[in-house]
Amino acid sequence: MHAGTDHPSAPGILGRATELDRLDRLLGAVDGGGPQVLVLTGEPGAGKTTLVEWAAERGRARGLGILRVRGSEGESGLGLSGVHQLLHPLLPGEGLPGDGLPGEGLPAAQREALDRAFGSGSAHHEPRLDQLSLCVGVLGLVTQAAAHRPLLLLVDDAQWLDLGSVDVLAFLARRLEGRPVVLLLAAREEGVPARFDRDFPQVTVGPLSRSAAGQLLDAQPDPPRGKARTEILQQAAGNPLALIELPRALARGLAPGSTRTPESTGAPGTPESAAGAVLPLTARLEGLFATDLAGLPAATREALLLVAAAGTADLAELVRAAPALDVVRALDPAERAGLVRVVDGRVLPRHPLVRSAVYHAASFLERRQAHLALAAALAGEPDRRAWQLAAAATGQDAEVADALAESAERARGRGGYAAAATALERAAELTPAPEPRARRLLTAAQSAMFAGHPQWVGEMSGRVGALTDDPRLRAEASLLGGWALGVTLRHEDALALLLGVAEGCAGPAPELAMGALSTAATSVYNSGAPYHRAELRRIGGLIDEDGDPAGCAWARAVIDPHHERPFLLGHLKEGLAALDREESLGNLTALGGTTWILDETEQAVRILGRTIDLLRRAGSAGTNATVTQALALALFENGSWTAAEEAADEAFWMATEAGADNVTVGARLLRATLCALRGDHAAARTRAMDAVRGVDLRRSLSLQVRHRHAVGMAAFAAGDHTDAYEQLRAAFTRDVRPAPVHYHASLYYLGDLAAAAVRAGRADDARTVVDAVAHGLDSDPSPRLAAVLHRATALLTGTGTGTDSGTDDDAESSFRAALADPATDCWPFEKALTRLDFGEWLRRRRRSAEARPYLSEALECFQRLDARPWAERTAAELRAAGATTAAAPAGELTSQERQIAELAAQGLTNRDIAARLHLSPRTVGYHLHKVFPKLGVRARAQLRDALSRDEQRGPASGA
Questions:
Q1: Within 13 A of 946's CA, how many CA atoms are on the CB side?
Q2: What b/e readout covers 918-942, taking b as 16+ CB neighbours within 10 angstroms?
């Protein structure tokens, strides 16, 4: 569970912020003021021992004495062995370092009870140990030791403590109040000792979140990639130990994927997933998840093997598969052992790794017989039957391969692209002839691309060339491989493949050439290199564009979105007409990007939203992280910040799972930018730096300038205008005639560059940049870009040392031009910045009455977006202009807002809260967006104190 950081005092622990906060509070309770006992529960491998070790280190750092015991299955029958281990340092002849000899001042009866319990022969003649005297003696011994130094008592693996020790510890735990002692007890969920299962606060150490699980997996010495990575993430189900151990099995050559089961096919009632493999386990995992297997009856093991082979087991199916076996009776010992649960006619393994343990404990013959029995029982379900036959296959089998290919087509029809990719990959393995095998592998790679799994796409497309000499099939494989390389930030390699395919196919296969060109356009944009744009233009001129108007529109727009805008909008119109005829995923993706790059932002939000809906139509289909990130950017620009943050979070964890590095970095940069604009400048800077650590930004200029913007706005929010200017200035070259570092993204930062320049005394330098950029643009830029240029010009007019920097009339004209076009309402934050700048400009010229309407509109926008630094600045300007202003909208929390706020204060993520309250994460974000200003807080960490203050004030009069 180590690698990364989620807690300021816990470098290396991932995804456990809530648990660490509770442990911190427990340690603080040693001085009084809170519960002094905490029970940690969780499944095997959840990381309870890691948290206990962290508490020990933290306790030592605070100067606490540490007494600890770890339960042992071998000693669970030895009376008081646990208490002896705990108290060993306090017994005569031991003692904590720096302390005197404890026990000397205890009453004689208590000393005698301790002596008799722990091996002294002084009272061996007594027939019976007095339990109460022993408990009081232990309490006295601990109290005496705590008088020298506060104590932290640690109990790990409490499920294996002997009952006598449990009784003594429970007695002690109930009497810690008023003593400088705290107790932390950790046990498996099903094994919490009876004395501790109800009376004390509990924290369940659950599975890691998807993003934390992905980060932990990537931190391993041999991190898996592609499909293997997805399979491990699914099978581990957030279990930290499994995430550490399964890559070791993979690195030793125990490759996952050898056996897949029906849930990967997208059959009705089963999850659409790319990962249906039954993974092999290491000995350590087997010891945790299959320890009871060997002692079960043979009939029970047979029934469990059917459950494992079925993947999602319906009792009726198991009965049909094993008519000679009393399945219900056979499963009873397994249910009593906690390996499975039978609920509503379904058999559910306790954890996915229980299934793996059962499956790999059987021989191949036993597994094959189970699959064949299930195939016979599933005659009416062709998808699942095909998978069972495939698992039982002993070699290539054309009939089974055809059945899997048909299953894949049904999955694609439901939008289950990841499921289709899995089925087609297996179908290719079973196909005897090389040419059909290559075609199926190619179609599998295409489905994996639509599912958003670049590593997997690269693996499959790379195998096609060895199976066929067909130039078209090889070209299509290169196209898919190029896409995979681009998504993983290898733009140079991607374009070498994609542009080669586009040029080579321009004559014989223009539709394929345009597909390669459209795919290449994404890497061309991200790279930002002029040479690649020139190549995109040159090769585009060789291709007949009639076959793919959507792809053509995207490629043309990427080449130069700021020139010949009417021509580009014409291409967009043709693409949208094609979309009306056929709502394909490819058309939607291309046109979503085109509308975004041409500043048709509201339309981009609609189209990208439709794309996401199509990807999710199957309910559990793999969603494309690239599309989700594009939607997040569009939502951010049109002022839907809460929705943008939710989309960026979703894109991040999907990209982390899939290995889509371009999205992983981009989503983190967007979150850092939002953090800066909301005023948390320190966190924003940290997030921005973390996002690009280890990334060569010279090869991805779009990310480079977005990183500069995030750090620059963090500096601006902190009031460091000099650093803000230097960061934003780095989005443009230092040439005599400055140019954008990225031909598209850099331009939208001109207004912020000018605002920082005025405050940093760098107006002359900034004017050089703005003039050079404006000179290189068409006379008809988008309304958004025109407004950005007008704002920058207005801010710099009449400033600096130049004598020709313009007059007040020029500045006012530019301000009014920036605000004149109602189309710019689509970018509310940018428009609010201009209103603020113009309001400040007017007030400084003693035109306060004119300034107030602009400032009021700006304040309303900043408060709605929770852009606090700008809201505070605007409110100050309004007061200076003679207006009375209120703080951000306040009021009583609704019951739902309070419920959400309390859960957020406990450390739950929006996704966790949504699952608990049966809401969408977006709805939770919306409510928190209203809660923060009502409570006067900026960060989730402040919610607990703010809620306490709110409760102390009580309800408003008359409420």
A1: 21
A2: ebebbbbbbbbbbbbbbbebeebee
What amino acid occupies position 815?
F
Quote the CA–CA distance of 959 and 894 in Å, as a whole number. Answer: 12
Token couple for 312: 């999602």
Nearest one of 584, 599, 513, 600 to 550, comparing CA atoms: 584
Q: How many C-beta atoms surround the C-beta of residue 356 within 10 A? A: 27
In sequence order, the 6+-apart residues with CB closer than 8 A to the CB of 415 are 272, 614, 615, 616, 617, 618, 621
pLDDT digits (tens, 9 = 90+) for 388-440: 999 999 999 999 999 999 999 988 877 778 888 989 999 999 999 999 999 99
* Calpha distance 890→927 (Å, rounded): 13
pLDDT at res. 253: 57
Query: Which pLDDT belongs to residue 376?
Result: 93
Specify the residue for token string 């409510």: 927
**Closest by CA position to 156, among listed 77, 44, 253:** 44
Return d(Cα 658, Cα 863) in angstroms, integer: 37
Burial class (CB in 10 A: 0-12, 13-18, 19+), 132: exposed
Spatial contact of 241 and 267, defined as CB atoms under 8 Å apart: no
Distances (CA, A) of 538 to 329, 549, 569: 72, 18, 20
In contact, 388 and 382? CB cutoff 8 Å: no
**What are the DSSP calls for 805-830, one per residue?**
S--HHHHHHHHHHHHH-GGGGGSHHH
Instruction: State the amino acid at position 836 in one-letter form.
Output: L
Residue 685 carries which DSSP code? H
The CB-side HSE value for 135 (13 A sphere, CA atoms) comes to 16
- Per 3-state DSSP, the chain is made up of helix, strand and coil in percentages (nearest 5) of 65, 5, 30
Alpha-carbon torsion (413, 419, 424, 426), positive or negative: negative
- pLDDT for 714: 96
User: Where are the strands (E) in 446-531, listed by range?
Assistant: none
Count CA within 13 A, CB hemisphere, residue 668: 23
What would the two tokens of residue 656 be?
């982390």
* One-character DSSP codes across 273-307: -S--B-----HHHHHHHSTTTTTS-HHHHHHHHHH
CA-wise closest residue to 663 among 681, 649, 673, 646 = 649
Check the CA dihedral 427-261-227-486 and report its sign: positive
Query: Which structure tokens are listed for 493?
Result: 């390699």
Q: Would you say 647 and 628 are in contact if contact means Cβ atoms under 8 Å apart?
A: yes
